[in-house]
């Protein structure tokens, strides 16, 4: 039997001729936390079983593996050279193979997140395995371009599909296309779409017939008082076509034609040369820039409004919205926008749902954060479409979160027993496991589908069961159920998920209803902390009352003139929420875990005082959430914060 000693793993690796499903592995599940992942678990920093620990692609054909650790490498990955001398993309230093990275590094060419790569130890230069071994790069058969916007020659990258699109083009400032060719400077991490790199340096444009426009690598120096004469947005970064004589210009990413057909209008629209002041009839906003007109309808609209969709779907409303240029309902003219709750002038364009008499400003409705991802499943009855359990027989179910069947019971439970899903105390009507001390309340079973679309996110969220996770909304550490969005890399706890409406009424001490404002910048009335675009605020602009998610989900609250607090009427005792909820109250303790920094199973504990010191920072363990070894003779203990810092490095 072939076996090798590989530098990336402490045990010998044995050659396996087929996918290693005989080692108890479950393809697509993390070997650390046992949660479903596509290939790599960012929480445990482990590759999913059934995937190569080198390139993180699915295991097929021959591979080398360690069945004891669930570590496998494609045969081609195991045989990679450990050092490359004079690589064409970085000839000045040797590149060393690293298969134990942290997936936070990025390849200098394709900018993918990588865990296994070739790295220069002298400077911060990384190449993932795909780019390092690309035939065009190895053979130096790639095209070079000396572009006016950059000091170094750029190389043309083709036939490399980008999975993540966080890197933006330096020309148009738009995300890099997933499969389109591009130019880049690997040493400077400079990228240009191929179409942006090949833009002409001088153009004659129908919107400005007096002089030719020159292509600039960045906006003019007085950009703080300049804006694009086509879309009206202020210049920030990127290429600009500009006439210095007339101080007329526009972003190079805004091409325009003399005549266009708009989806929201039946007649062709004609471009007006020069800049005029007007009110756009498509959106109702003022404009002082180049515009389009319809001679038959005496219609005048912004250039960017010509691309408005006839119908759209937003995450705030269950039905599609249609664009209208005006409303014939006289009473409807007093309507308010259902997104920002400001008055809306229905003599101009808006988006409208006839079934619900729902109106929204055009600019509110087309906000990228609100437009729904229409490529995913339709938002129907998620509980029926994606149930989280299967009924075995009346009163007995198989739930995805537990390995045994659960039985329905209407009897009470012991004091202190909580639901494993929502961490709340269970009373009557709960499901339990006859073999384990595992409980789920009836609400968590029947009201939480496996997949759901929430109004806070454009993407589909999926329900997972976590030992511990951090909610990206209320910012509490929690255990149990959480809805994960893979696209946003964010988990939402059940308490935040239960806020199913953007309008919240009956807030104690507040006469106005609160609505969710994703643009709100200000302080939370409850905790006095700053709300970063996630605030529930009063409709009355004279009222400064606003709450963040953390304070909104606090149970049974009262307030004094400054901050909210908890109060016991019988004992006349009060406490601030941060004081009373110290120590991560939504985390399930004494739950066995496996971590990569210790060989024994560990458990989460809350510590008032512990005589030993943290194995990481050396400080005494007190008033903290910690990780402690379950072995009686082992004194290993870690502050939870120290453990998180270690994982992020």
Automatic annotation (TrEMBL):
Protein name, UniProt field: DC1 domain-containing protein
InterPro entries: C1-like_sf (IPR046349), DC1 (IPR004146), Vacuole_Formation_Reg (IPR053192)
Organism of provenance: Rubroshorea leprosula
UniProt keyword terms in alphabetical order: Repeat
Pfam families: C1_2 (PF03107)
Domain DC1: 88-132, 148-197, 207-248, 264-305, 316-365, 400-445
Matching PANTHER family: CYSTEINE/HISTIDINE-RICH C1 DOMAIN FAMILY PROTEIN (PTHR32410), PHORBOL-ESTER_DAG-TYPE DOMAIN-CONTAINING PROTEIN (PTHR32410:SF216)
């Amino acid at each position: 039997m072939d076996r090798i000693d590989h530098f990336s793993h402490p045990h010998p690796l044995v050659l396996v001729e087929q996918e290693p499903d005989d080692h108890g592995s479950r393809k697509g599940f993390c070997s650390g936390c046992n949660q479903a992942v596509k290939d790599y678990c960012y929480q445990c920093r482990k590759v999913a079983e059934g995937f190569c620990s080198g390139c993180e692609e699915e295991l097929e054909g021959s591979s080398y593996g360690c069945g004891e650790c669930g570590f496998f490498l494609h045969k081609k990955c195991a045989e990679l050279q450990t050092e490359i001398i004079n690589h064409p993309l970085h000839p000045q230093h040797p590149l060393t193979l690293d298969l134990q990275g942290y997936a936070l590094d990025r390849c200098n060419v394709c900018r993918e997140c990588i865990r296994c790569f070739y790295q220069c130890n002298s400077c911060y230069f990384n190449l993932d395995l795909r780019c390092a071994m690309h035939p065009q790069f190895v053979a130096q058969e790639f095209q070079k371009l000396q572009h006016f916007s950059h000091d170094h020659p750029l190389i043309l990258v083709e036939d490399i599909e980008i999975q993540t699109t966080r890197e933006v083009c330096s020309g148009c400032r738009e995300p890099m296309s997933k499969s389109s060719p591009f130019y880049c400077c690997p040493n400077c991490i400079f990228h240009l779409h191929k179409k942006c790199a090949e833009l002409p340096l001088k153009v004659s444009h129908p919107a400005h017939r007096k002089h030719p426009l020159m292509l600039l690598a960045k906006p003019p120096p007085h950009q703080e008082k300049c804006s694009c004469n086509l879309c009206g947005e202020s210049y920030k970064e990127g290429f600009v076509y500009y006439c210095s004589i007339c101080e007329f210009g526009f972003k190079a990413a805004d091409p325009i034609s003399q005549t266009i057909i708009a989806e929201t209008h039946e007649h062709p629209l004609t471009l007006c040369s020069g800049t005029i002041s007007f009110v756009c009839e498509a959106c109702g906003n003022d404009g002082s820039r180049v515009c389009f007109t319809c001679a038959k309808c005496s219609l005048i609209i912004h250039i960017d409004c010509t691309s408005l969709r006839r119908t759209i779907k937003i995450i705030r409303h269950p039905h599609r919205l249609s664009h209208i240029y005006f409303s014939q309902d006289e009473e409807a003219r007093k309507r308010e926008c259902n997104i920002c709750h400001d008055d809306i002038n229905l003599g101009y364009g808006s988006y409208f749902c006839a079934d619900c008499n729902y109106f929204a400003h055009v600019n509110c409705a087309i906000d990228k954060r609100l437009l729904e991802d229409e490529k995913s499943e339709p938002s129907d009855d998620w509980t029926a479409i994606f149930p989280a359990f299967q009924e075995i027989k009346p009163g007995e179910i198989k739930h995805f979160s537990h390995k045994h069947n659960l039985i329905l019971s209407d009897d009470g439970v012991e004091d202190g027993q909580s639901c494993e899903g929502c961490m709340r105390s269970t009373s009557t009507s709960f499901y339990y496991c006859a073999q384990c001390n595992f409980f789920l309340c009836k609400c968590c079973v029947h009201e939480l589908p496996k997949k759901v679309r929430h109004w806070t996110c454009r993407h589909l969220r999926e329900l997972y069961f976590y030992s511990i996770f951090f909610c990206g909304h209320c910012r509490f550490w929690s255990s149990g159920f959480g809805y994960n969005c893979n696209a946003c890399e964010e988990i939402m706890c059940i308490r935040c998920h239960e806020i199913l409406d953007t309008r919240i009424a009956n807030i104690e001490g507040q006469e106005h209803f609160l609505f969710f404002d994703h643009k709100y910048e200000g302080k939370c009335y409850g905790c006095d902390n700053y709300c970063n675009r996630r605030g529930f605020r009063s409709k009355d602009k004279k009222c400064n009352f606003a709450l963040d998610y953390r304070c909104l989900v606090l149970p049974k609250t009262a307030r004094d003139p400054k901050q909210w607090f908890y109060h016991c009427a019988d004992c006349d005792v009060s406490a601030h929420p941060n004081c009373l909820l110290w120590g991560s109250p939504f985390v399930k303790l004494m739950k066995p875990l496996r971590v990569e920094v210790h060989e024994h199973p560990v458990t989460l504990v809350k510590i008032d005082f512990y005589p030993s010191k943290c194995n990481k920072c050396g400080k005494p363990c007190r008033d903290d959430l910690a990780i402690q070894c379950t072995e009686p003779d082992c004194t290993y203990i870690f502050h939870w914060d120290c453990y998180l810092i270690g994982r992020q490095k």
